[in-house]
Amino acid sequence: MRIRMEKRERLLERGEEAYPVKPRRTHSLAELRKEFGHLPAEATTGEVVSVVGRVVFIRNTGKLCFATLQEGGGARLQAMLSLAEIGDQSLADWKALVDLGDHVEVHGEVISSRRGELSVMADQWSMASKALRPLPTLHAGVSEETRVRQRYVDLMVREEAREMVRTRAAIVRSIRETLHSLEYVEVETPILQLVHGGAAARPFETHLNAFDQKMTLRIALELYLKRAVVGGIDRVYEIGRIFRNEGVDSTHSPEFTMLECYEAYTDQFGMAERMKEIILNCADVLGTRTIETEAGVVDLDGEWRWLGVYPGLSEVVGSQITPETSAEELRHIADVHQVKIAPDWGSEKLVLELFGELVEPTLIQPTFVYDYPPSAQPLARPHREDPALIEAWDLIIGGMERGTAFSELIDPVVQRARLVEQSRQGAAGDDEAMQFDEDFLRALEYGAPPMGGIGLGIDRLVMLFTNTGIRETILFPILKPVGDSRA
């Protein structure tokens, strides 16, 4: 860095700019590749251009120097600097001042080298941005830790990193296009909230100075979107950031992106069709409905089956489990299968934990897991046939939950009782319990239409299609600080 700083100073002392406002640029590197990529070896074009790119390879030998320039999309082009074309001083300046990582402007004719490499034969060059830190060696790659902590470096040197950004953008765009085709309306709802709800999660707390009021960052999009449906926006959605003050691992981040959409006059089965359409359209945009995952090959064109929580658990443990199965018996099953549980968990919580540990990882092909016990989702409607269950499903693909949906609870009396119970649990020390939201209940009391709703984790959907962990799918993930921030 000291040597590079000295080079920067030398440029400034000579009255040249190390960071000009706007370099000359007549063509992108990709445009030249497209237009002249067919040139045979040693061909000339007579086309004079000015290009700008980051130097990712450099070879300074004698009277002819070579450099590879790269632009943001990953396109590369060779620059050739010949003593005969640019003169002694300019060539000497190139050798003395240019390093890997610098952005440079090169002006000259488009040609093909003796080896057939598309090139610009420079007659002028200038600095576009002097890099003060050296790039990692391209062939050695970048460590995983550096990749996630310094994503900008990762993007510079790895095409896979740039492709991840494009893939995620394509998935989000496809989701929006699918929902727009179904006449959904996109809205934005508050991130800062007085009352946290819509999920079982610990919120981040903050303070609004203007009102001298404690606030939280939202843990879900649900409750405000349902207010919109009450108001007459029959099909509504939001793709937004969610914040949950919880653990960090390969599948969880404290800050992540969710799609939530709600539709009047449908139920969990209608929303299952919506979910399937969303995911299949994403697959088609990416070019395949067959996905390689660590858990196995997923065939999205195969059956999307439905599996009840209790029958699914019964099959795996080899005995019949029902909503009437006692907590004592479930604790025994947990002990036999070495599933860690807490001594104060009731039967419903035990069933959910056992299913998550023993059954969910085995569900590789798309599976709608449904008929949950009521405590699983306080905002879901009671089952139309069995009061011991609720109308909700989780979509499991590749052994991991990707999304969820309910036939939404719209009875304000039942919802009030559910939220009162959540408040009791919070008062008893459950920091993931929802708070009591009187305004949400007031909205329901005006009459909410029957509706279905979806929650889809964007990050987990990207994880599915790219077979990566959550830190790779989030461009700038939250990480534990280490060492000096200048390191």
UniProtKB/TrEMBL annotation:
It comes from the Bacteria. The keyword RNA-binding does not apply. Its cofactor is Mg(2+). SUPFAM superfamilies: Class II aaRS and biotin synthetases, Nucleic acid-binding proteins. Residues 166-481 form the Aminoacyl-transfer RNA synthetases class-II family profile domain. Mg(2+) 1 binds at residues 394, 401. Its EC number is 6.1.1.6. Homodimer. This is Lysine--tRNA ligase. The gene is lysS.
